[in-house]
Write a structure and sequence with these properties.
Layout (H helix, E strand, L loop, with lengths): L16 H9 L7 E2 L6 H8 L4 E2 L3 H9 L3 H15 L14 H4 L19 E2 L2 E2 L5 H18 L2 H8 L2 H4 L5 E3 L1 H7 L3 E6 L9 H15 L3 E6 L3 H13 L2 E7 H6 L1 H9 L3 E5 L6 H14 L4 E3 L10 H9 L1 H13 L6 E5 L4 H7 L9 E9 L10 H4 L1 E5 L2 E5 L24 H9 L2 E7 H15 L5 H16 L5 E6 L7 H15 L19
Parallel strand pairs: 1-2, 6-16, 7-8, 7-10, 8-9, 11-12, 11-16, 12-15
Antiparallel strand pairs: 3-4, 5-6, 13-14
Length: about 525
């Protein structure tokens, strides 16, 4: 299996190929076969100079898919292979069996973490660095630069110098009417939705952009689901004069059309991903493929606390400003720490940013809210922790939505930002140790949460945040009035208004919300799932 997914065919061969093959040859005399996105005769000739064999996979699969019959497949594949190998006649193939000469006792490499880390790459049994060999040098360099920056007061001084631009510190206040309507515990809102670009995402983006500057990288790539990370990345790249490429699943491009247009206005190139489920998972796959091919010029600005080490730690540390501010603000405004902290969890960056400061505060309970979609029993959900099992995806071990054979399953949520089949490894660790609790909220319940915050506080939350709003308000009803709940409003809901309008004909009757878009759902240009 590949921890990063298949390589995929490309327009050019990885420029690091000679260096990588050279490193391998220092340790073996075995023949080396290389597959680096090869699809053209030019690619073949380039690889032929370095390797003993050439592996072609994705391009041949594409030819198979285009063939009209089984018989035609064989003809098309044979024709392609002759063309790419620049051979016009049959050649005798002499098989060589190296196995007898090269059998060695090796450890089980199925799930090995090959990194040589300056810091611990794991959270208990979760996390790690299950990445392609071609990325190891880049990941090691990133870790070293980050650890140096982390201990450098001038780095953090520069980071904080952008607080006015980012809109930090973000506000924290009592949701007095919402509290009154629920009739129980006090509900406090940490307003990450008021940040520049409309979510918590800019905290991490500005930090990683500053790291990219130290790395000398001029090209930034990112994945995005709901579009908020894409918008934040495009915004920062415009600010710092960097090239920006954003990968986004085709389905998410459709349901988050407004954010796609915002990214393009900011100068980013948005690439729709048409493979797989065409959602966030596949956008991450494509971003990692890009990074593998362009490691010398490109920084992959990962948007959440997932991915190979050191990304989960880097993103968490930049997002921890949420929890640090919240702790001080609660002491100032409430005179005590909250009894509960609640945040939505997809990859989990806003939740990890809130939770991290409170982990050692044993009296503060932490609740992460996942996307229950159409319900866990339906199979149409994105609740990795609530319904998943441990496995490896995108370079790290965590809880995943997968089958018995380890194959990643399609996920679903009304919220594009939570529609992901995994979760950050530190969240998996918090669940495993019992330090945090994780629950799943359905689409229908999320819309109830959305309506409550919108109509009781005049705050339109993102659909992602709305999942946490529902859990928060239901909990508040059950608690006495002297208890305090801190809710992270991770983003604003402007981006979701069209999607909500399209979904209300389906969900409105179920939740008693008789509101419809005058033009009709069909005029909104959104295709709802069956």
């Amino acid at each position: 299996m590949s921890a990063l997914g298949v390589t995929g065919y490309r327009e050019k061969v990885n420029s690091e190929l000679p260096h990588l093959v050279g490193r391998v040859r220092k340790h073996t005399t075995l023949p080396i076969a290389v597959g680096f996105g090869i699809s053209t005769t030019e690619h073949f000739k380039t690889v032929e100079k370095e390797a003993d064999g050439v592996i072609i996979g994705s391009k041949i699969i594409k030819i198979i898919n285009k063939s009209t019959s089984k018989e035609q497949r064989l003809v098309d594949i044979e024709k392609y292979c002759k063309e790419i190998c620049h051979r016009e006649k049959e050649e005798e193939i002499i098989p060589i069996d190296y196995r007898k000469e090269t059998l060695v006792d090796v450890p089980n490499v199925k799930q090995m973490d090959y990194g040589n880390h300056a810091t611990d790459s794991k959270f208990g049994k979760f996390g790690g660095q299950y990445a392609a060999e071609s990325l190891m040098d880049c990941l090691d360099e990133l870790e070293k630069v980050y650890l140096t920056a982390k201990e450098d007061p001038l780095f953090w001084e520069e980071f904080r110098s952008y607080y006015d631009y980012m809109g930090r510190e973000s506000k924290l206040h009592l949701a007095d009417r919402l509290t009154k309507e629920m009739g129980g515990a006090r509900i406090w809102l940490k307003r990450e939705d008021l940040n520049h670009t409309g979510s918590h995402k800019l905290n991490n983006v500005i930090g990683q952009i500053l790291l990219a500057k130290r790395l000398g990288k001029k090209r930034i790539i990112a994945e995005t689901g709901a579009g908020q990370h894409g918008v934040a990345t495009a915004t920062a790249c415009a600010k710092f004069g960097l090239e920006c490429v954003v990968y986004m699943g085709e389905i998410d491009v459709q349901r988050q059309a407004l954010n796609v247009f915002r990214m393009k206005m900011l100068g980013a190139t948005v690439i729709p991903v048409t493979s797989g489920s065409r959602t966030l998972k596949d956008a991450v796959n494509e971003a990692m493929r890009d990074w593998t091919a362009n490691v010398t010029t490109t920084h992959y600005l990962v948007g959440s606390v997932f991915g190979p080490h050191p990304f989960p730690q880097i993103v968490r540390d930049f997002q921890s400003v949420i929890g640090k501010e919240s702790k001080k603000q609660m002491m100032k405004k409430a005179g005590k720490l909250p009894d509960y902290v609640i945040a939505c969890v997809g990859g989990g960056s806003n939740a990890m940013g809130l939770f991290y400061t409170f982990i050692k505060e044993e009296n503060v309970k932490m609740i992460g809210v996942e996307a229950g979609g159409s319900g866990i029993s339906s199979g149409l959900h994105s609740a990795s922790i609530s319904a998943g099992t441990p496995g490896i995806l995108h370079g790290a071990k965590s809880y995943l939505i997968q089958d018995d054979h380890g194959q990643i399953q399609d996920t679903y949520s009304i919220s594009a930002g939570l529609d992901y089949p995994g979760v950050g490894p530190e969240h998996a660790y918090l669940k495993e140790t019992g330090r945090a609790e994780y629950v799943a909220v359905t689409d229908e319940q999320a819309l109830i949460g959305f309506r409550r915050l919108t109509q009781y506080e005049g705050i339109i939350p993102a659909l992602e945040s709305s999942h946490a709003v529902y859990t928060c308000t239901e909990l508040a009803k059950k608690l006495p009035k002297d208890k305090d709940i801190l809710l992270c409003v991770s983003g604003r809901g402007d981006k979701d208004v069209i999607s909500i309008a399209a979904n209300l004909p389906k969900f409105g009757p179920k939740i008693g919300w008789d509101l419809r878009f005058d033009g009709g759902a069909e005029t909104l240009g959104i295709q709802l799932p069956n």
